[in-house]
């Protein structure tokens, strides 16, 4: 099945600082569960594809002697380099490249992780290439989380309406390809991985209650592909005011409560008998 949906590789240009500050970290329980299930040797190599600012690479780094953090956006990999230097993680290597174009040898990684990004990649191509990059017995982990505007609470629905309105106002409604999620619904990730040769190793879900402030939400929105700083531009102050007006009526103690759902789907390259 042809699931190719093309995303502009520059959608996240200028978002790295906001991505680092306002994207929620994966919960410790999920990281611990991933380590338990993938069972890295402590001497292997990790590949974080479409890594953002290293939301998976850094919490996993101590389990590996070599870490590749790969992202197509130079701003993201610049932040990864700065973070690695700041914490003395000399074994974390930032690589600026599209996942589809990465030059990596066969059988070199114990674990490959992709966080909130598989849908933006050529899934079939990346799955096939990831299979060859893994050692026999190695794992691919697809990790993701829900977004604050996608939930059932009144403030989340109000936020969703506001964001859609501003995307239309600023001519940004086409930045994300229309129907981008249709292929994923018709051809789920686990089937894409199966065709590439992977064996399913289970999906685990984790829920965390988070209390947003409105300024935090404004920063989080600037970390997205659909309303980044380059799109808000001269309208940023006006947008922030509209956000305060719309969400202020829903706050309790200046906070907006969300149940954030995280998940990690694991697939394994079967070791030969």
UniProtKB/TrEMBL annotation:
This is Class I SAM-dependent methyltransferase. Its EC number is 2.1.-.-. GO terms for molecular function: methyltransferase activity. GO terms for biological process: methylation. The lineage of its organism: Bacteria, Bacillati, Actinomycetota, Actinomycetes, Kitasatosporales. Keywords: Methyltransferase, Transferase. Residues 47-138 form the Methyltransferase domain. It comes from the Bacteria. The keyword Methyltransferase applies. InterPro entries: Diverse_substrate_MTase, Methyltransf_25, SAM-dependent_MTases_sf. It comes from Streptomyces olindensis. Gene3D superfamilies: Vaccinia Virus protein VP39. The keyword Hydrolase does not apply.
């Amino acid at each position: 099945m042809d699931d190719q949906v093309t995303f502009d590789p520059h959608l996240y240009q200028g978002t790295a600082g906001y991505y680092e500050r306002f994207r929620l970290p994966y919960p410790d329980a999920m990281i611990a569960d991933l380590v338990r299930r993938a069972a890295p040797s402590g001497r292997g190599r990790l590949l974080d594809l479409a890594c953002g600012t290293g939301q998976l690479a850094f919490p996993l780094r101590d389990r590996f002697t070599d870490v590749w953090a790969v992202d197509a956006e130079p701003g993201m990999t610049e932040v990864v380099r700065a973070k690695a230097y700041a914490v003395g993680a000399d074994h974390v290597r930032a690589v600026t490249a599209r996942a589809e174009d990465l030059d990596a040898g066969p059988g070199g990684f114990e674990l490959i992780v992709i966080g909130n990004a598989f849908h933006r990649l050529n899934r079939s191509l990346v799955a096939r290439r990831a299979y060859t990059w893994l050692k026999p017995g190695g794992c691919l982990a697809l990790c993701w989380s829900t977004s604050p505007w996608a939930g059932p609470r009144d403030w989340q629905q109000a936020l969703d309406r506001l964001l859609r309105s501003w995307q239309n106002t600023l001519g940004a409604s086409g930045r994300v390809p229309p129907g981008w999620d249709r292929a994923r619904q018709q051809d789920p990730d686990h089937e894409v991985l199966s065709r590439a040769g992977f064996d399913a190793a289970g999906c685990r879900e984790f829920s965390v209650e988070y209390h947003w402030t409105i300024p935090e939400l404004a920063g989080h929105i600037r970390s997205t592909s659909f309303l980044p700083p380059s799109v808000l531009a001269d309208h940023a102050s006006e947008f922030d005011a509209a956000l305060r007006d719309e969400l202020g009526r829903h706050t309790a103690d200046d906070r907006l409560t969300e149940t954030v759902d995280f998940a990690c789907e694991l697939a394994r390259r079967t070791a030969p008998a």
